[in-house]
Amino acid sequence: MMVNCPQTCDICKEAEEHYNQQEEEKRKSPTYEPDDSKVYTLTADTIDDFINEEGMVLIEFFAPWCGHCQQMAASYREAAHLLDQAHATGELKTLIKLAKFDDADVSGCFCCYQLLVFDRICAY
């Protein structure tokens, strides 16, 4: 956070504290992806390019508050890990990437993916 800030000031400290509090709240959600997760977290800026990459892509359109999405998060994460391992060992010839897109977060996103029903998985 301080990378772009040439000096430390009270505003920067407040912004950093606010950011850290938000991140801590996000980490409490079962839908939060830890750093070692093989599930890609997509945004409105990255989803189109990710879909157009080579290989098969499964994208879960989810909402953090959705009970079904929360229940499925650990299994989805495990599936992504198993697919990654199978591809690394040569058991799976085509790479299958699992990703997720928080379709409930519409901040600055006027994309066509906004769904009315969660949890939905689409193959690309």
Helical stretch tally: 3
Described by the principal axes of the CA atoms, the overall outline is elongated
Class by SSE composition: alpha/beta
Question: Which percent bin holds the helix content?
Answer: 25-40%
**What's the number of structural domains?**
1
CATH class: Alpha Beta
Radius of gyration: 17 Å
Please, what is the average pLDDT?
A: 82
Helix-strand blueprint:
Layout: H1 10-27, E1 40-42, H2 47-52, E2 56-62, H3 67-89, E3 96-102, E4 120-123
Parallel strand pairs: 1-3, 2-3
Antiparallel strand pairs: 2-4
Descriptive key words:
3 helices; four-stranded mixed β-sheet; Glutaredoxin; alpha/beta; 124 residues
Q: How does this structure look, described?
A:
The chain is an alpha/beta fold. It has one domain (30-123): Glutaredoxin (3-Layer(aba) Sandwich). The chain has helices at 10-27, 47-52, 67-89, and strands at residues 40-42, 56-62, 96-102, 120-123. The chain has a 4-stranded mixed sheet with strand order 1-3-2-4. Helix 3 (67-89) links the parallel strand 2 and strand 3. The longest helix is centred in the middle third of the chain and has 23 residues, at 67-89. The chain is elongated and about 55 Å long. It starts with 9 loop residues before the first helix and ends with a strand.
